Write a sequence for this structure.
């Protein structure tokens, strides 16, 4: 794999996206992490580093066998990113955050059901909550993969949110959408149980979205 120079544009885009995670409210401090597929592996944000002072050279170049190069330690969640990128060739970028409302629901071990048609943006009729496992472990990565089957986003019990996309902008956009849905669902729950859309209606939504946009 080529060095920093060969991935400079991607590294710069990752730094910018990581900073947007904080300014958008998706993330706080040094929590959360971001990865981008490159030839033979992926770029990953370093462990416990402030995004405001992070530079393109601080990103870690990782291979699928778990080895890495660079002058920083990789995020403790590298297995989560590795397993997703290895198993899902359509995924180009993975975003993990501790966003407020998604994490609130995750701490209740509650996913997001079809209370709103935009839940379909995550690829199905709900956003599942993965079973709990300690952060940075193979068990967490396995539980996440189960929750993401047929989906592009999931919650991690007592932890946070994972969203994937073909590229960085797509992963970021979906993470913002899921966090918005989590906020709306949380607010609706303050008044009672929201009325859910049935599978037939969600299928009509999927059909509508196939021709949506310019």
């Amino acid at each position: 794999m080529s060095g920093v120079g060969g991935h400079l544009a991607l590294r710069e885009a990752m730094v910018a996206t990581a900073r947007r995670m904080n300014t958008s409210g998706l993330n706080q401090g040094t929590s959360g992490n971001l990865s981008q597929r490159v030839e033979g592996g992926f770029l990953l944000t370093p462990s416990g580093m402030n995004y405001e002072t992070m530079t393109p050279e601080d990103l870690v170049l990782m291979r699928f066998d778990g080895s890495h190069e660079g002058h920083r330690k990789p995020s403790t969640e590298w297995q989560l990113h590795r397993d997703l990128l290895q198993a899902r060739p359509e995924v180009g970028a993975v975003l993990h955050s501790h966003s407020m409302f998604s994490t609130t629901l995750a701490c209740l071990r509650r996913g997001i059901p079809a209370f709103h048609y935009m839940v379909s943006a995550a690829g199905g009729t709900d956003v599942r909550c993965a079973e709990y496992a300690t952060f940075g472990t193979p068990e967490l990565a396995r539980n996440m993969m189960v929750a993401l089957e047929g989906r592009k986003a999931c919650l991690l019990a007592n932890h946070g949110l994972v969203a994937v996309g073909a590229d960085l902008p797509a992963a970021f956009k979906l993470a913002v959408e899921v966090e918005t849905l989590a906020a709306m669902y949380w607010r609706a729950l303050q008044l009672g149980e929201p009325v859910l859309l049935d599978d037939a209606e969600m299928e009509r939504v999927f059909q509508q979205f196939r021709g949506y946009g310019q």
Residues 8-211 form a domain with the L-fuculose-1-phosphate Aldolase fold (CATH 3.40.225.10).
